[in-house]
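User: I'll paste a sequence; please echo it back and then give the predicted structure.

Assistant: Echoing your sequence first, then the prediction.
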Amino acid sequence: MEIRRVRPDEWQALKALRLRALASDPDAFGGRLEDAIEHDDDLWRKRAAAGPADATTFVAEAADGTLVGMAVGAPAPDHPDAAGLFGMWVAPNARGQGIGGALVDAVVGWAASVGYELIGLGVTTTNTAAIAFYERKGFADLGERMPLREGSDLEIRLMGARVSALLDAPSS
């Protein structure tokens, strides 16, 4: 398994991966499959080509070349001094192999490389497995809740950590 930045020429594979994620686990994301399907190709090209200080997408590539996971590092909304971890997903058939942890580590490394001191994420409050995973990685509950998206009854829990603490923590 290789964890790496998505390449600009992989925009179609990135689009397919994101659509798979939204179809498989719709309540794990603020975005909706219906909306993502409607995005034009230029948006997917921009996402795949984003530079180091912009939203940067990391992917997990299986030995056969299939993309089986992703995570995005980007500036956190409303917190210019913090990075955010967004769009984290691992295909169900690839879970339990350490891919999620490696993707989080890649985003944390990106955040450190561009100078962020803090990193945060949102996770659906009903996703106890993901909450436990992020806690094991060193994220803590910030005590803030908000709707997953407009019109949803689901809430997300905001979690955060110091980038330096995550870099110093043992990998899990």
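The two ends are 16 Å apart (CA to CA). The beta strands are 2-5, 56-61, 67-76, 79-90, 118-124, 140-147, 155-162.
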